[in-house]
Amino acid sequence: MISDTIPLQIPEMVPSIVHLTPYPNPARDKIFIKNLNIARGETIVAQTFNIQGKLISVEVINTNPANIDISEMRNGLYFTRLFSEGGKNLGTFKFIKE
Q: Which residues on adjacent β-strands are paired with residue 55?
């Protein structure tokens, strides 16, 4: 039997080294990330997925406080995964875009 449904996956929630907290949550234009201190010259990559698991944006973060521009995203629930320059998974968090 052939199925007409496509399995959807949400990015795997991997425990963080530090507890990453997005604020404000819900947000309209920017999400700031509490407990993510970026050293001078360090780069963090943020991958943001929608609730269906589709990659919506990839953003390079190299500023303190760490923030992600969400102004162009539609309203809804999102998941963001953070990686160090070397590819180390720093954690995943969810936020709501208003």
A: 49
Tokens representing 23? 């604020």
In a domain, 49, yes or no: yes
Interval 19-77: pLDDT, tens: 788 999 999 999 998 877 777 778 899 999 999 999 999 999 888 888 999 999 999 99
Range of the domain at 46: 27-97
Write the CATH number for 82: 2.60.40.1220
Of 48, 62, 55, 52, nearest to 97 by C-alpha is 48
Instruction: Tell me if the pTM is above 0.70.
Output: yes
The CA distance from 32 to 47, in Å, is: 15
d(CA 29, CA 7): 31
Q: What's the domain count of the chain?
A: 1
Alpha carbon 16 to its chain centroid, in Å, reads 12
